[in-house]
Amino acid sequence: MPERWCGALPARGEETSVTAGGREAAPPRKVGGERGAAVIAAGIFLSRVLGLLRNTAFAYFFGQGPAADAFNAAFKIPNALRNLLGEGTLSASFVPVHSRLLARGDERAAQTLARAVLGVLLAGTSALTLAGILSAPWLTAALAPGFRGETAALATRLIRILFPMAALMVVSGWCLGVQNSHRRFFWSYASAALWSLAQIALLVAWGPRAGSLERLAVALAWATLAGSLLQVAAQLPEVARLVRPLRPTLATDAEGVRTVLGNVGPVLLALGVVQLSSFIDLQIASFLPAGATSVLAYANTLAILPVSLFGVSIASAALPDLSRDSGTGAEALLLERLRAGWQRLLFYVVPSAVAFLGFGDYCVGILYRAGAFDADAQRRVQVVLACSALGLVSFASVKLVASAHYALQDYRTPLRASMASLAVSAVAAATLSWVLRGTPHAAAGIALGSALGSYVNLGWQLRGLRQRLGTLYTPAMWVGTRRIGMAAAAAAVAGGGARLLQGLVAPGLHPRLAGGPVLAVVAGSYLLAAWWMGSAEAARWLRRPVRLGAGGRP
What we know:
The chain is mainly alpha-helical. The protein has helices spanning 32-62, 66-103, 107-134, 136-143, 149-162, 164-181, 186-190, 192-206, 213-242, 257-286, 292-327, 331-368, 375-389, 392-407, 412-435, 444-469, 475-505, 511-532, 536-542. The termini are close together.
């Protein structure tokens, strides 16, 4: 039977078998895990598109000056706490336990658990928010020690406004965990679009009339806080139908609560290491020439897009099913889910990395090139984006691999991997940025350090899974990965030809006019090349049958 690569995730309980060579003896049907990833990707895509528009408006007014640096630094703290205490921690510690209670049909115990976890979160984040507002000057000094004068004062004021957003986003993360456990994926991710809409509305309405960038930054901070409130409010109606009554408690003796709280510690440490790495990057950037902090933020917005769309969506959709599989001892099926999800992830992330490396000027120009964001800013962000692209595969893969560890109730391996990654990335980022300190691209050293650290993280976690589950990458998967690389290379060549032709026919076009056709050629060429070599994923996009024969065989 001809092999299909980048195929579907097997459904829970669906029979599959794989030969020693890695071929599917019974190809899995298109099922819930894959549909769940697609639904999550759709929700993330909606929120990310509006997020990109928000950043486009931000770049138009702020460019890469001191006010932009102050806002991005102040935003870093509540955003890190959101990732630390909200979506990341709850996905890893709460969803597996909650999903298992639902899988055994104990709806009442699941609801009791959800209410108790919400109560603990509200109590903890309320105290944390008050402490953050009071300690804002010290937070600025600790996280951006290179800031001076008005930049430091503005960052402190913005921290005080933005810090309550952390508590609201933690509640949003709890809502997301409840919905994901019930396989309600779309709105839990798409609701973030409201958060971006509030900021876009403020920038469009108030930006031209603000009078100064400092005043505009303060107004934008209040709009950001209001947007987080809208995001939570939008999720509550559906959550209220799933958790009845929707009333937080502190019933720490309820079934599963102590397990969740026990899981929180290692997850917080692992995610805390990741957030600490980003804070170290911020500290390093604060000593670089003005604008380095903003350049990193602009590049990260683009680099994180494929990680969110594909890494997060596939990992989030897989986690409830992986947890159910591990709870019943079906680790062979868990391994098959991991393999299938990883191949699908690589199908999207590899060409994204190629696009950022070869055509990053178009990606940056389309999104940011206007107003205060000039050609020099575009070049600086493009270089940092290319360096981030080198680690794109590992950044995205870690999301899925860590979900497998969490499903197996293994929280120590991701923690140790994160600690090793932090050590490597911090040393590499500091060293490389120091070497490049006399150039306009010193911030690229930070991106290179992060990319190197992410591969250390991935390698450590893969070793842990291999010791527990056995061989992860089959010969058939290596064949599929090689074909993905070949298709991406073909797309790069086609895109290079389109770039050359465009330069001859219509030189000097604005990136927003020039980039679209070239990137369309890159994407179209990749899909066609992948389909020609037998990709089931490309066939779905092209709405054509999987191509069999010589191209579809290993």
